[in-house]
Amino acid sequence: MGKYKSLNKITILAFLSFLAITLITFFKSALELEDAEQAYYSQWFRWGYDDQPPLYTWLQYGFNTIFGVGKISFSILRGILFAGTLLMLYRYSKLRIKDVDTSKLAILALVFIPVYIDFTFRRLSHTSLLCLSVVASYYCIQLLMQRKSILNYLLLGFVVGVGLLSKYNYAFFLVTFALGSLWDKDLRAIVFNPKMLFTILFSCLLVAPHAYWLLGPDGFQTFLASSIEEKIGIEEVESGFSFMPILIYVKGLFALSFPLLLVIGIGYFSKLITLNKQNLNWFSKMLLAQLLVLGLFFLVFQSQKVETRWLLPLFIPFIVLLLETVSFKNNTKLVSFGFRIFIAVIFIQTVRTPIEKILNIPSSVHFGFEPVANKLSKNYDDNQWVLPNVTYAGNVRLLHPERTIISADDYSLRTLEFKHKKEVEITINPSEVKQTTPVDSLIVFGKDMENLYFYIN
User: Fold this and answer.
1) What is the pLDDT of residue 88?
2) What is the reported pLDDT for 329?
């Protein structure tokens, strides 16, 4: 009966999160950056998009087909992924932690990870899919620890394929898994089992079309490399070798885990929590290997930026390991209290956007793109619309889903052909003097008060 109630609470929590994520979007006048990107890229079914793998956009394409191009389509997908991560993490924690209440605390503890309860809850797309993929990967490994069946190896192959198609950061998990198998005999028994060929072949089959697109003759991997360099700030590196990236990495880990560790620390010194003796098992070794792999990557490439949202998917399963190392005086009361806190945070996240609007707190989502879309529709309906970036293009497409919108910063668009007589291109604060004179303008637009100029090509 206790197990049923516990599972029911987690299901309720996942469902309420899904509803809240779906509801929040109706309080926004414009799409978040990630949703705007999906509104734009989901116009087509391609083997690749921009600098991220295509699976999320494929899913969004399907949701748009079912629900239409509207705010609900983008929020539903993110809500399902958020709820799915909660449920999958709970299934994994139950496999490892025998106490049901402690297993539930592993999920409730997510409320103390700011980037998860805020960024993932409100706006992240590919990162949400990667969170689910990584948690599912550890779940499959745990299944293989118990039973090395062909079905479990095929399941792992499917999850690996999904992970690689969700976000390129998934490669860090695979490297960690390979390194861990050299260190731990239990992982080695999984990796060096002949049935592992089923995993490899299945995942390669899933990833092959996108891999060909990325590494093929069009040279998309060059843009990907440039994008990675820009994201981690390689262009900011001064001459010489520095250990500063390690400090930046540690700072990112601190920002990711500090509130949770603070709560555990307060509980320990208040004698509400005791520490358990732990052997160095395969899961612990995976944590150490993951720390090492990421640290070496940032150090070798002299990264100047480490965002907590990059770290979140790779470390979110280890919240289960943290809960394995502690014992609580009264698990049942903590579960009840933690459940209420999680519900309260969901409520705050839901009302945050309308409150920001009432209080005139600046936010890009409160500035709709109707002025841009109306001007284009009224004066340039016969032209091909070319917007300056995917944020503009996605938001304009939301208002005109019947049209094909082009974004000037879509590097992969060159593989497509559009038949049109002439284009109207919008430029933001043009830094270069164009040979043609703008035919129209929209001055001081949006939160950033940008000046938009319209050109006919």
Assistant:
1) 97
2) 85
Separation between Cα atoms, residue 381 and residue 374, nearest integer Å: 10
| Among the ranges given (35-39, 126-130, 142-146, 443-447), the one the predictor scored with the smallest mean pLDDT | 443-447
The strand pair at 406-407 and 384-387 is best described as parallel
Give every CB contact of residue 399 below 8 A, 6+ residues apart in sequence: 369, 370, 373
Q: How far is CA 304 from CA 98, 110, 116, 167, in A?
A: 42, 27, 23, 21
DSSP conformation class of 414? G
* C-alpha–C-alpha distance, residues 292 and 274, integer Å: 28
Enter the tokens of residue 433. 């003097």
Pair 122, 158: CB distance under 8 Å: no
Q: Which amino acid, 214?
A: L
Q: C-alpha angle with apex 454: 450 to 457, nearest 5 degrees?
A: 145
SS3 for 371-422 is HHHHHHHHHCCCCEEEECCHHHHHHHHHHCCCCCCEECCCHHHHHCCCCCCC
What is the DSSP code (8-state) at residue 117? I
Give the pLDDT score at 296.
95
Contact (Cβ atoms closer than 8 angstroms) between residue 56 and residue 106: no
For residue 435, the model assigns a pLDDT of 62
Q: Beta 440-445 vs 406-407: how paired, if at all?
A: unpaired
Q: Which residue has the tokens 């930026």?
A: 305
Mean pLDDT of the chain: 90
Closest alpha carbon to 230 in 177, 301, 297, 290: 301
Q: Is the pLDDT of residue 353 over 80?
A: yes
* Cβ–Cβ under 8 Å, residues 113 and 259: yes
The one-character DSSP state at 274 is: E
Structure confidence by residue, pLDDT tens digits, 403-427: 999 998 887 776 455 655 688 999 9
Residues sharing a CB contact under 8 Å with residue 447, sequence separation 6 or more, in sequence order: 362, 363, 364, 366, 367
Which tokens in the block code for residue 256? 């990711």
Contact 48, 410 (CB under 8 A): no
Burial class (CB in 10 A: 0-12, 13-18, 19+), 196: middle
Q: Hey, what are 288's tokens?
A: 């150490």
pLDDT grade, residue 432 (50/70/90)?
A: low
- CA–CA gap between residue 172 and residue 291 (Å, rounded): 10
pLDDT at res. 90: 95
